[in-house]
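Q: what sequence does this backbone want?
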């Protein structure tokens, strides 16, 4: 008879013999999950903001490489002064700084052709820096306002550095040397 009760109770009421979680244990697991997800979201936001600076720097370096490539291939636009004047090269203008001469608009940097010694507008390409999280050109760290890649010589007028500031006091520097080598480096903003 005892065996019958044991078999009967374990088949009809299987949870009586198992132990369940208490309310305190469930609350602790929810609290730990909430803390871990908060840390994860904060880390993701920090990473996302830092990647915005990397993307902006890469876009500027890419525009410099396009200017160098167009100058080397001698692709001549068919607008403005380039119709009748010889192509001198391609120039990248840093518009977001004092003393820069750019086309009207709100571009932060742009690519223009230079024919017969004059900048040809409209620009071949115009871009802006991301507004959030506060990406900008550093006035004191940027030594050049324009970079001209020449057609025949393959050299560059305007070697120097472009310093870009970003989120959490991080900076990147794009360096252009006299033989038109373009490098990107991380540096301290101070």
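A:
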């Amino acid at each position: 008879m005892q065996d019958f009760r044991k078999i009967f109770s374990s088949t009809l009421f299987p949870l009586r013999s198992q132990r369940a979680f208490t309310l305190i244990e469930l609350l602790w697991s929810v609290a730990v999950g909430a803390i871990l997800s908060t840390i994860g979201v904060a880390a993701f936001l920090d990473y996302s903001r830092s990647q915005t600076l990397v993307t902006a720097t890469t876009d500027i370096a890419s525009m410099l490489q396009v200017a160098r490539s167009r100058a080397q291939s001698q692709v001549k636009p068919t607008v403005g002064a380039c119709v009748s004047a010889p192509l001198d090269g391609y120039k990248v203008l840093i518009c977001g700084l004092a003393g820069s001469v750019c086309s009207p608009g709100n571009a932060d940097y742009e690519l223009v052709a230079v024919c017969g010694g004059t900048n040809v507008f409209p620009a071949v390409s115009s871009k802006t820096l991301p507004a959030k999280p506060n990406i900008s050109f550093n006035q004191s760290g940027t030594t050049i306002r324009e970079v001209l890649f020449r057609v025949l010589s393959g050299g560059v007028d305007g070697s120097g550095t472009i310093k870009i500031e970003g989120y959490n006091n991080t900076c990147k520097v794009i360096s252009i040397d006299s033989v038109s080598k373009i490098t990107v480096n991380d540096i301290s903003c101070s």
